[in-house]
Each structure stands twice: as C-alpha cells, then as structure tokens.
Predict the 3D structure of the following.
Amino acid sequence: MGLINIEQLLEKYDNAETSLAEEAQIRAYFAQEEVPPHLESYKLLFQYVSHTKQEQFTKDVPLQPKRKKTYQWISVAAVAVLMLGTYFQMNQMNQTTTLDDLSQEQLMAYNQTMEVFNLVSTKLNKGSAHLGALDLVSTKLNEGAENLVYVKEFNNATNKIIKNK
C-alpha cells in the first residue's frame, strides 16, 4: 500500500470518516515492522489498540450477597402491633370508663399516647403531601406515552409514503 494512500486514510481516520475495511487496511499497514518516521506515533497507537484488545480481566470479583432486611420489617411490624394494641386498649377503656374516672397516672399515659398518635399522624400527612408530585409525574408520563402512539402512526405513514415513491 502506498504512503500517499495511507496518509489519505489516516486523514480520514482522524476525521472519523473511515469505514471498517479502511481501518483494517490501516491496522494491517501499521502491523509491519518498518514504518516511515513521521508515522511512528500512529504505529504506537495501533499497536496499543491491538494489544489492549487481547487483554482479559482474569481476577475474580467477589460478589457480596444481598443483606436481608427482614429484621427491619420485623421492627416495623412490632411497632404497628404495639400501636394497634394501644389504640384498641384505649378504645376499650373509653367505652367502659370516661376520662373523669381515670387516675392521674392513667390520664397522663392517655395524654402521652394521644400526643404520639398526633405526631405520627402529622409525619404521615407530611409524607403523603409529596405523593401529589409523584401523581403529577405519573400523569405526565402517561400523556407522553399517549403522544408516542401519534409518533408511531406518523412514522408508519411516512414509511408508507417513502415506499410508494
């Protein structure tokens, strides 16, 4: 292969305009022992590329097993059971007695429990406020999916027009 032809191919290669066959010609040329001195940097480049293609990663990559999160769910379930038990106990106490019949200690426990329920309620309400944003995103994604149908129909129509010409 002539030097002028290789230089033209290298210029196309630098501009990312070569085909795969032309790149194969360039690689074959630079696989030779003797290359003109002004193209020595290209020889190093193509030798590096061919060398790195042959490299393989042989080191074992240890995969860590997924940690089980059952203990987290157990704690959540325990809190839920405790809250439900307290709620039903308070409900039963309210049905059998009035607040006036409670001792000072029982009244204090009742008030603390109600404060905890109010705190949990406000935190849940704050969390549900952010769900509106997710609803908006879901709505917009559905609208986008509906618009994709129109794009597909347009694509099919243009393909039919192009095929008829």
Observations:
- The radius of gyration is 37 Å.
